[in-house]
Input
Amino acid sequence: MISVTFPDGASRPYEPGVSGFEIAKSISPSLAKRVVAMTLDGDLSDLSDPVTRDAKIEFVSRDDPRALELIRHDAAHVLAEAVQTLYPGAQVTIGPVIENGFYYDFYREEPFTPEDFTAIEKKMAEIIAEDRPFTKEVWTRDRAKAWFEAHGEAFKVELVDSIPGGEDLKIYRQGQWLDLCRGPHLPSTGKIGAAFKLMKVAGAYWRGDSNRPMLQRIYATAFASQEELAAYLKQIEEAERRDHRRLGREMDLFHFQEEGPGTVFWHPKGWTLFQTLISYMRRRQQNEGYSKSIRRKCSTARYGRPRATGRPIAKTCSSPRPKTSGFSP
Output
């Protein structure tokens, strides 16, 4: 027998190999319905994982903050299945959870557009409604490579090769569709819920290498409830409404250009406003008795082709921020 210790300090004996779900059910059938994962000695694990040794266990319900990462991770798997169902020939690569959501990178000749999102979201909702169980299998390296090669998943073959030799190769199924994944996962797709949304599509090089194939990255988000999703989308809307780049352009104050990253190109009205603020700050500092101490630093810079003499074409001087006032003109 093994001893399982709960958060309140109580312990119970169980047969080795008992699953987390079976332990939850032995405590209360209603608990087994509520929980979606567990922690074993602090590590988040599948509820179906066997417990083979003495351990501290804690059950994670769907509304637990720790479950949000699982919701988003599982939604990424569902996104990948939906894309491959709708667009045969699309290859899958990776789909991690990130801050405020997740993404999945695909290789496909024809680009995705936001107009594709409605169909993809509809297919995702169908997969979630089917409530397919997530099941874990451990494959040999040869079996995994053979399966992905047979299905034209070249990127997955490369990922298999990159996994250290001593690590298990875990495969998670959701019905007939499967993916290479470390896990853990929710018990089934139905636990993801309906609070998800595709956000945007962008390009990304495979493994961040510009010499490798260009992939298409679909960004998305998911939450435990529709209310949380609505609040997040409202936050995004408000942030876009207050975006200084958009406001500067619309109010004819300034703009940015790709030719000068980070450089503000002031318009006459914006420059007048900026100088007005500078004058106001100077008056306030003077009235409060601040004084400036400026040490000028000069450096040389070359622009265009160097002259035959080798002398610098331009000499620039900059002033550091005054130590007394915290303001620099």
Q: What stands out?
A: Residues 138 and 168 are 6 Å apart (CA to CA). Confidence is low (pLDDT under 50) at residues 300-329.
